[in-house]
Amino acid sequence: MKIAISANGKNLSDLLDKRFGRCEFFQVYDTETKEIKIIQNKGNQASGGAGIAAANQIVDENIEIIITGNLGPNAFDIIEENSIKAYTCECLPIEDILKKYDKKELKEITVCGPKHQG
After folding, report:
1. Which residues form the signal peptide (predicted)?
2. Among 33, 74, 75, 111, which one has the highest count of C-beta atoms within 10 angstroms of its own C-beta?
């Protein structure tokens, strides 16, 4: 199973970025191989529709779980339509977030956040 975490950097010690559509990277953790893959977020540089671009990228990567701050309405709809589970977390190091996920300590995102303006 692949878990994508919106991140400020490429290392496990880097923090979660609460901005799903505008985060710089997604750190993708494969629960079977225990490997981390770094993906540059295509939504980060988009002039508009960042959440849509990021959500479509997550779908294309066959991600099954997302951990982020929140999801705007468009990203939320795409994630939900593709049966991807989403969880929210505070800005902690990625390695700590993975531990919280394993312990089932993260809250599932069941409603979208506000639409981002600008």
Report:
1. none
2. 75
